[in-house]
Amino acid sequence: MNATDPVVLPSATDLYTAAARVGGIVRRTPVYEIDGQEFGVAGARVIVKLELLQHTGSFKVRGALNTLLAGPVPSDGVVAASGGNHGAAVAWAAARVGVPARIFVPSTSPPVKAARVASYGAEVVVVDGYYPDAWVASQKWAEGRAVAQIHAYDAPEVVAGQSTLGLELAEQVPEASTVLVSCGGGGLFAGVTLAMGETLPDSRVVPVEPERCPTLHTALVAGSPVQAEVGGVAADSMGAAAAGRIAHAVASQHGVQPVLVPDDAIVAARTFLWERCRILAEPGGATAFAALHSGAFRPEPGETVVVVISGANTTELPGS
Amino acid sequence: MNATDPVVLPSATDLYTAAARVGGIVRRTPVYEIDGQEFGVAGARVIVKLELLQHTGSFKVRGALNTLLAGPVPSDGVVAASGGNHGAAVAWAAARVGVPARIFVPSTSPPVKAARVASYGAEVVVVDGYYPDAWVASQKWAEGRAVAQIHAYDAPEVVAGQSTLGLELAEQVPEASTVLVSCGGGGLFAGVTLAMGETLPDSRVVPVEPERCPTLHTALVAGSPVQAEVGGVAADSMGAAAAGRIAHAVASQHGVQPVLVPDDAIVAARTFLWERCRILAEPGGATAFAALHSGAFRPEPGETVVVVISGANTTELPGS
Q1: Fewer CB within 10 A of the end CB, N or C, for chain B?
Q2: A103: helix, coil or strand?
Q3: How close does chain A come to B2, measured CA to CA in Å?
Q4: Quick check: A50 contacting B, CB < 8 Å?
Q5: Predicted local confidence at residue B320, as pLDDT
Q6: Domains of chain B: which residue ranges?
Q7: Which of A28, A275, A278 sits opposite B53 (nearest CB)?
């Protein structure tokens, strides 16, 4: 969609349709309770949703698969530019529906990431340079071809796909009062917020952003998504150039204010998750937890807080 | 207990008493379903129980905590010789009940392991040499002191503690028909077998041993626990010098035959768990899964197989 088109949010029907489509193909990721007193949170229950155990190691498969199943998929398949979670998710989803995927990966991305994308059956094209170079190459290849492109976060089918995480969570933890989610482009945040609105309307969803990737925060201040400078430890998965228009609209409608966390809080949260829980998240996947762990977000007494651990695409143990 | 004493198995009451004691202190670790077709298992459901997300990264805290809570604990606290999961579990449990713990660690154990034991508040004594040197030093220190020792696997309170994993699992997956558990000294195997016998008597528990740590297999062939030569990739957590008498008795009574898996199957299973599920297990923790992943264990059509992933005390990613 163009910046001047009206923003289309997925409807309640779109969310439940997505759940029916992807259910039984994506994994129903587990939840479990940990003791908040281990990191200074008293008087509230803390439950983590282990979405990092999803296919390809992140929630992104939900949106990618929902988009392809909404079909029909053009004859030349699907194309994406990404060396990260989105590329792996598109490759995986394409394999599940049996269409070809061509993923353009910048040469500056670690070879292990390209290998991972290829391992799901996609054709990987390594493009000399950085992400924008890969993106340009993907667009050039797509010209004149009958090919689908899946936005990484700002399309109704993608947001509806990500919402299935929220629908699951509402079934698993019906007593949830607050849900903390990491927010990059905002596809997960928007989807989970819409899902909780349908299922547990008294709950709230709090997006958490790295201070150095404050795309939603910046959009809310500016009144619309704008380019934000991004960097820091979580930039590879959280560093969207701008928040999605859907995420911005959802945040505005719900009066949501993102919680911002510094890089050292993300690193400390990631270390705790590994050292004390044996959960190995990537920095972006640990960002929501960082808000709780660092005290940037403080639950009300008696609350049940669910924290989504959203990704695990890392090749390093904390401290190593 | 001495080798000539009759073997005492925990009673059903002992199991439920243990569950009441440790419930709410140990974590109720989650389960989730994965698609067996990803590794060639068709026609059966595959559910993994993520016990590696337990405190200290292994099930061992269940037995250690149950033992200390059965109390009273002598005034000088508790002592153990272990640089591994048992040492960490004893240290953690002692901290939870507020008694001092002194853990003797061999100097040949990686320093990171000693640091981990110390991080739970125990006094760590590094002893020059190998495990037997640490054990001798621990016994010497214990002489004339009022101090508790917790067996790593062959005591009724320990087995009753480990059984709480089985009681949990029976609630989480009441349709379980087979449970696969890694078997070193056999404390987990014995506990889970007794728990399933109480809760889901039509189910079966299958112990899985590395070919190079075949302690239960050797005991069943010999008619009693005997010293077995141990080695291989999982020896640090699975290399008990001999199977427990309790484990041997339980296996004999239930007509159980362990499944043996070679080291390369353990490595492949561990790699799959990380690459495809983002579960980072240690080799011993992946041993039960190796039986299913390698085809050494083949489920019956229509079965629901639960695989316990029992430990994550590793400092290496597969392939790194």
Answers
A1: C
A2: strand
A3: 36
A4: yes
A5: 56
A6: 12-59+155-309, 60-149
A7: A278
Q: Indicate the range of A44-53, B194-203, B218-227, B260-269 predicted with least confidence.
A: B218-227
- The 10s digit of each residue's pLDDT in A87-124 is 999 999 999 999 999 999 989 888 888 899 999 999 99
Say yes or no for a CB contact (<8 Å) between A31 and B34: no
**Which tokens sit at A259?**
């919680």
At residue A308, the 3 state secondary structure works out as strand
Q: Among all residues of chain B, which has the CA nearest to that of A318? A: B315
pTM attached to this predicted model: 0.96
pLDDT at A320: 56
**Which chain A residues have a beta carbon less than 8 Å from that of B276?**
55
Residues of chain B in contact with residue A276, where contact means CB-CB under 8 angstroms, are 55
With 90 as the cut, is the pLDDT of residue B238 above it? Answer: no
CATH assignment of A60-149? 3.40.50.1100
Amino acid at A187: G
* Chain A residue with minimum CA distance to B24: A35
B69 close to A (CB below 8 A): no
Closest Cα partner for A242 from A223, A258, A227? A227
What is the edge-to-edge ordering of all strands in the sheet holding A304-309?
A: A31-34, A45-50, A304-309, A178-182, A204-210, A259-261
Which residues lie below 8 Å from residue B166, measured CB to CB, with a gap of 6+?
B179, B191, B192, B193, B194, B195, B196, B199, B205
B172 touches chain A (CB under 8 A): no
> Does B61 lie at the interface with A, CB-CB under 8 angstroms?
no
When scoring B54, B278, B310, B316 by the number of chain A Cβ atoms within 10 A, the one with the most, hence best to mutate, is B278
Kindly state whether A115 is in contact with chain B, defined as any CB-CB distance less than 8 angstroms: no
Contact assessment for residue A44 and residue A36, using Cβ atoms and an 8 Å cutoff: yes
Q: Is B145 on the interface with A (CB under 8 A)?
A: no
Question: What is the predicted ipTM?
Answer: 0.95
Pick from B29, B34, B57: CB nearest A32: B29
Q: Listing from the earlier edge strand, what are the strands of the sheet with A123-127?
A: A123-127, A101-106, A78-81, A148-149
Whether pLDDT at A3 is above 70: no
Cross-chain residue pair B317–A315, CB shorter than 8 Å? yes
Q: Do B33 and A33 touch (CB under 8 A)?
A: no
Which of A278, A279, A306, A315 is the best mutation test for B, with the most CBs of B within 10 A? A278
* CB pairs < 8 Å spanning A and B: 50
B12-59+155-309 and B60-149: same fold?
Answer: yes
Q: Where are the alpha helices (DSSP H) in A200-294?
A: 215-222, 235-238, 245-253, 263-277, 287-294
Q: Looking at the partner chain, which of A27, A277, A280 has a beta carbon nearest the beta carbon of B34?
A: A27
CATH class, range B12-59+155-309: alpha beta
Q: Tens digits of per-residue pLDDT, B1-46?
A: 566 788 999 999 999 999 999 999 999 999 999 999 999 999 999 9
